[in-house]
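haha ok so turns out i had the wrong file open the whole time. this is the CORRECT one, sorry everyone. sequence first:
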Amino acid sequence: MAKIDVIMPQMGESIAEGTLSKWLKKSGETVKRDEPIFEISTDKVDAEIPSPSAGVLAEILVNEGQTVAVQTVVARIETDASAAASGPPSTPAAAPPAPPSPPAPPSKAEPHPAPPARPAPVSDPRPQPTPPPQPAGGEVESLEERLRRKSTPLVRKIAAEHNLDIGVIPGTGMAGRVTKNDVLAFLERGAPAAAAAEPPAPRAVPSAAPGVTLIPGPVVEPWPGDRVEPWSKIRKLTADHMIMSRRVSAHVNSVIEVDYTRVAQLRARKKGEYTERGVNLTFLAFLAKSVADSLRQHPVLNAAVSGESTIFRRDINLGIAVALDWGLIVPVVKRADELSLMGLARAINDLAERARSKRLSPDEVQKGTFTITNPGVFGTWVGLPILNQPQSAILAVGGIEKRPAVVTGPDGSDLIGIRTKGMLALSFDHRIVDGADADRFLAEVRKSLENFPEGAA
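then structure:
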């Protein structure tokens, strides 16, 4: 008889926590290996998480709607199904009392902060929470106090660099937890290096759904007839990530026009062949192939900033933004430069489909080195995207359509012709990418598309 821990996975390099949005299995139910057992939501992905082992879901330790750090144990699976198939395990009658020090961490989080529960009678089959850790003086901390005290290493580093006491900074995170944005906003308001003993009076803010962090800003009151919709977890985290990206990187944009006429002709000839093999051949696949090949010649566009150093990534991993009804997800095609056009088209189709059905694995939304976003599918002429940190560049694909253009006739004269054209917009981090580097990369991508080899299709 053994129990397997089910943990909160890390769904992205910069993600430190996730929200367990829904349990797909109940305590006591039998689960199969790789069968989805719960859904999570982060700023990178909404996903169904599979079971690491076959057995019985013996304990559920994290409730729906609760946000916990990655690697937190959210449930336990009893691998001996015959021992627990009849339902949740009862509290063992002969279990010895917990040692006085140190107390065990909570085995099940409560949906609302509450004092530690007294031990339940042995006959109660429901899992019971254990008392939270106690401070040295013996006084029990509340859930709010523990979450407020808990902060990320980055937040503590920024506070230490500016000689700030995190305890006096108004926290907008869950249960008053201090976030990076809180520290930066505190500094921008002209806070002294040594924080005052009395914290600033909290200002009124609109209410939000549990676990949602409101970004500091002006208080906006709804007017009669307005509809107020609290942010979902993925919307809130996306907003935080975009604000952080704007704050961190020096954003610059370059735009170039591309003649897709040759690509359109190749696509028309090859689309039936690809369809027979179960692959939808799109303009995006051609673009991804040209981008992947060009990044090898322009490594600074496939890089990241680390302090005062530049990390040039060995692998070319293309993130492909997928718009969903509930937010934006960026699954990653690993080592895209090693794939053929067929391989890229198949990978893009597969990732997009599984993103929409919440079947992406944690590894499939991590380690992107360059992102492509395609607002042109909605008819947008051009878009200027925000960098997907910590990447140094992101490419937006504008709408592709037939347009009048000046073409050169066989005799060298200029004529007005119909060409299939579209815009590409590159946002890049000017801290490490110079304008000349970005423009040479765009020119290389355009040249590759306008002269796409027949054999590569």
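The longest helix spans residues 233-248.
again sry for the mixup
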